Amino acid sequence: MKPSILLTNDDGVSSIGLWAAFEALKPIADVTVVAPATQQSAVGRSISIFEPLRASQVVINGENAWAVAGKPTDAVIIGLYSLRLNPTLVVSGINIGENLSTESIMTSGTVGAALEASNQGTKAIAFSLQVEDQGDKFDDPRYHAQNFDAAKTIVRDVVERVLAQGFCPDTDVINVNIPSHVKGGYEVTRLAHKLFHTGVEKRLDPRGRPYFWINGPLVEDAEEGTDVHAIRKGNISVTPITLDCTSYKACEDTRKVFL
């Protein structure tokens, strides 16, 4: 029997990246798509607890899928507890745009869905594809010009390896970032600190009232061994992530303060 995969994302159920992942995984697994009905990037692990959720069956590219009117985490929870899929693995992506550094994974809906799955007891892999123009992240994800051929090969290879060998101890999520032009192989990395130089641009509306855009250019590079540096070199970044955010090194010093 084939393993079963719950496939989700944060770009929405119609995203070309999601269906590229579906095409890559369909030959090796029974894949069920449960994804947000609309674009939900940068919502992290936000969850809908103050409003009801609707999940509708849709047909995209001739394939059945579930469109959830909520966040990526909502889609995962609906798939696990309402549809009772009981998957072998959850896969999130392929996201249009890289999810690198501590800064990004804390806000990424793609990684957020993977973290939620693992927190609910099913290990997960998140896949993201670098874009050369950051503005591409804001285009309609149904008609993206990005080429997903290399990414599809990598998605299948990574998932086959993990299904065959399992997750390493102390790993809850594997965060995979694929460069737009792959020049090297896999590189196991740690999270860089930042991906963007954060800034705020103030503007005035036609009535003279101020409003703000959070913006900022990409960090040019980061130190050797980080996910940002790997992608800048053209390597495929593979970062093991744990749900446990405890700073164990700080525990003893913290006891001196409070005990």
The gist of it:
This protein has helices at residues 16-25, 72-82, 101-105, 109-119, 149-165, 227-233, 251-258; strands at residues 4-8, 30-36, 55-60, 63-68, 89-96, 124-129, 173-178, 186-188, 199-204, 210-215, 236-241. With 259 residues, the protein is α/β, with parallel strands linked by helices.
Tell me about this structure.
This protein has helices at residues 16-25, 72-82, 101-105, 109-119, 149-165, 227-233, 251-258, and strands spanning 4-8, 30-36, 55-60, 63-68, 89-96, 124-129, 173-178, 186-188, 199-204, 210-215, 236-241. The chain is α/β, with parallel strands linked by helices and 259 residues long. It has one domain (4-195, 221-258): Survival protein SurE-like phosphatase/nucleotidase (Stationary-phase Survival Protein Sure Homolog, Chain: A, 3-Layer(aba) Sandwich), CATH 3.40.1210.10. The protein has a nine-stranded mixed sheet, with helices on both faces. The chain starts with a strand and ends with a helix. The model has no long low-confidence stretch (mean pLDDT 94).
